[in-house]
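Take our chain:
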Amino acid sequence: MAPALAGIVEVITDWLRDAPPYLLAAYALLILYIFVQVFYVFIYVVAPTPRDVLRSETTYKHIEDNGSLSDSKPLPCWKSTFDQRKKSMRDKGDDSSDVNIGIEDPEVFMSLVVPAFNEESRLGIMLREAVEYLQKEYGQTRSDVTANGSVRRRQKDVKGQSNGHVESKKGGATAEPAGWEVLIISDGSKDKTVDTALDFAQSLGSESAGLIRVASLVENRGKGGAVTHGMRHVRGKYAVFADADGASKFEDLGKLVREIKKIEDSDGRGVAVGSRAHLVGSEEVVKRSFLRNLLMHAFHRLLWILTPPATAAIRDTQCGFKLFSRPALPYIIPYMHSESWIFDVEMLMLAEAAAIPVAEVPIGWHEVPGSKLNVLWDSLSMAWGLFILRAAWGMGVYRRT
């Protein structure tokens, strides 16, 4: 067999040496074209496609004013309205961008989305810290305006505040909604995550219990899928998602609100990313295993190589504490595909593609026992997911359609 193979190689070599340059160029282009088409098919096949949302997943339960558990109720969904408007415009031949579609007006000031998969042991602690802060700063009855973004409805003669509040063209301040909501997305949990959330809500009493809504996904989608699902149903002027483990210092939400108000564009779009980059040299990070730190730096290098410039400039893309202004959501959430750990990067890439300003904000953070992250395998999975994600968007497998 070796002599036969050597003979084939010799024939090809002689042909390449004697072939005219234009023919070689044509063959090279043909081979490149075939390779690109095969690669496109490969990416099309392996790129993740989120499953359809089930009817039961578009409902929630909460605690009624009398302390009883409610029946399942339909979740408000701005994305459904967005999709209907978009379809109507296209049926009329208008293929305009998302800016002409808009989003429903907010009903509250702050929405918190908490993805939770088997988090019965950690969820209650996180919720207590979050709700205490939300009620103190954004509660319906709060009358003060503080520098962390807490806002009540103002009279027209009140001037703009240092917290980023924007005055109207008439010289008065624009009214902003008050209040908050928490939307917990149980991501196919098999433990008592749902019961833990509802028990916590019930412990709050009538004033705040009804502001906590619990939705359950029938099957586990992944953290990205749970966050995306929750973001479709938020009612806030601002929407933040936070991990159920409580690792992020929740009161630093005020920092995110201040910074996002500084960078919002003329359409009110902005994203504020909680960041742990300033902790790289801290004891919390240094005492991690050598393998974990090595994989962390390798992933950051891969991000720098594979992502577009603005996303690559974010020093901590994976922190589970990100704030979005409501006008930014239609440019990001309807086009999400990744449901795994790498979903944060897709959010930032979509924000960059839509020219949405992004601020990276240092926050407090600490290690919490009970992490479900497998350092080696999940790191490899994230690297693979990043490669597929970048290729799918770059080659047109994923589109804004």
Q: What stands out?
A: The radius of gyration is 25 Å. The chain has a mean pLDDT of 84. The longest strand covers residues 108-116. Residues 21-46 form the longest helix (26 residues).
